[in-house]
């Protein structure tokens, strides 16, 4: 597929994700981590406009200079912006305005890609733009789930959404020998800067489960009083449990003694064989502790990942999100993409059922604060 087709395909997918929404769904921001869908569709457009059209396409006329303030996410290099908590307070630009902005930038981008002589540097930025938009496609799906799943009417997102089936192998834990393993991205193709450099780590012998923890297994922890036993929790986790009155994964509701959870199809009885999801790192850690086990480090996960199926859940690891040896930030605004977030977050490995197709790799490093659970997070045990 040529690069113009790739551009069209990635942009269409974002629009297809928004297809089932009503106009009001595009605007709200129920919590700071959830951005309004209209902000995502504007921000992904702004990314191409700011990092490709404005610097590299001489004849490009900016759509609206004020949009930089509205759709800049976190790039200090690119100037001031609406604070993140206020994204849901903006009734303007309207959804129609933002769709017009998308069309305007798409037309310019396709002119630029097909008529101009694209340098390798610009090609690299384009591919970063595709990967950036794919990350926002996943955020759109999880943010839409939060918006609808916290509405008292529990509206379905789309009856067409097909959740992939979990398949538990029931096989014994996979054993890996102690030794030196190579970690990080190498070779052709795209990777984010945080997957570099490839380097060696020494691992003690360990065992890792071929399966994700299921809802049925997690329910045993709930029923055993796991949320009421401080011994399984970090101090910060125990504060989180108490401050939030947590007693089950996000989206779970106990209705007349039966657990239900919000899904893209609306509120449904919990499918017990599915992999548990929407849990914080604190909960993943506490569950592992209750089982007398632990979470894998990100290095153990990567060393073992060819031997199990992954991709249904972002799997919390025991690793802090830190730079690899030799990590270097790119010069300019693009250097703000990953590096400045390497503090106070945990690494998650794998991918989830709403990760964009072809967006996952064995070396991919996702990262979130330990209390967050609106992503499709899950648990794989190690010992
Ligand atoms: Fe972004």
From TrEMBL:
Work out whether the entry's keyword set contains Ligase.
Answer: no
Q: Kindly give the Pfam families that the UniProt entry links to this protein.
A: DinB_2 (PF12867), FGE-sulfatase (PF03781)
Pathway-wise, it operates in: Amino-acid biosynthesis; ergothioneine biosynthesis
Residue ranges constituting the DinB-like domain according to the UniProt record: 9-113
| Sulfatase-modifying factor enzyme-like domain mapped to chain residues | 174-306
User: What Gene3D superfamilies does the annotation carry?
Assistant: paralog of FGE (formylglycine-generating enzyme)
Keyword annotations from UniProtKB, A to Z: Iron, Oxidoreductase
List, alphabetically, the InterPro entries matched: CTDL_fold (IPR016187), DinB-like (IPR024775), EgtB (IPR017806), Sulfatase_Mod_Factor_Kinase (IPR051043), SUMF_dom (IPR005532), SUMF_sf (IPR042095)
The UniProt entry, under NCBIfam families, shows: egtB_TIGR03440
The name on file for this protein is Ergothioneine biosynthesis protein EgtB
What taxonomic classification does the UniProt entry list for its organism? Bacteria, Pseudomonadati, Bacteroidota, Sphingobacteriia, Sphingobacteriales
């Amino acid at each position: 597929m040529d690069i113009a087709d790739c551009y069209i395909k990635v942009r269409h997918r974002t629009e297809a994700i928004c297809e089932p929404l009503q106009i009001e769904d595009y605007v709200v921001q129920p919590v700071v981590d959830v951005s309004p869908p209209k902000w995502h569709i504007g921000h992904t457009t702004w990314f191409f406009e700011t990092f490709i059209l404005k610097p590299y396409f001489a004849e490009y006329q900016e759509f609206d200079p004020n949009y930089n303030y509205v759709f800049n996410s976190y790039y200090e290099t690119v100037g001031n912006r609406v604070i993140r908590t206020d994204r849901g307070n903006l009734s303007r630009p309207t959804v129609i305005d933002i769709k017009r902005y998308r069309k305007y930038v798409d037309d310019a981008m396709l002119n630029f890609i097909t008529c101009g002589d694209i340098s390798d540097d610009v090609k690299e930025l384009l591919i970063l733009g595709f990967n950036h938009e794919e990350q926002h496609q996943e955020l759109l799906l999880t943010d839409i789930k939060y918006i609808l799943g916290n509405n008292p009417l529990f509206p379905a997102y789309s009856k067409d959404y097909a959740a992939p089936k979990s398949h538990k192998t029931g096989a014994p834990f996979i054993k890996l020998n102690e030794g030196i393993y190579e970690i990080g991205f190498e070779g052709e193709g795209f990777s984010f800067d945080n997957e570099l450099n490839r380097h060696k780590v020494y691992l003690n012998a360990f065992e890792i489960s071929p399966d994700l923890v299921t809802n049925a297994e997690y329910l045993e922890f709930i029923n055993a009083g796991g949320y009421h036993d401080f011994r399984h929790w970090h101090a910060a986790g125990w504060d989180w449990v108490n401050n939030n009155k947590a007693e089950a994964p996000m989206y779970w509701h106990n209705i007349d003694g039966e657990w239900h959870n919000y899904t893209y199809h609306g509120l449904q009885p919990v499918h017990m064989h599915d992999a548990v999801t929407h849990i914080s790192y604190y909960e993943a850690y506490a569950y592992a502790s209750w089982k007398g086990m632990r979470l894998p480090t990100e290095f153990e996960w990567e060393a073992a990942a060819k031997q199990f199926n992954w991709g249904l859940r972002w799997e919390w690891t025991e690793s802090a999100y830190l730079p690899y040896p030799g990590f270097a930030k790119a010069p300019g605004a693009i250097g703000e993409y990953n590096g400045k977030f390497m503090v106070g977050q945990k690494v998650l490995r794998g991918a989830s059922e709403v990760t964009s197709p072809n967006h996952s790799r064995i070396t991919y490093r996702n990262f979130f604060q330990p209390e967050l659970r609106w992503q499709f997070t899950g648990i794989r045990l190690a010992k």
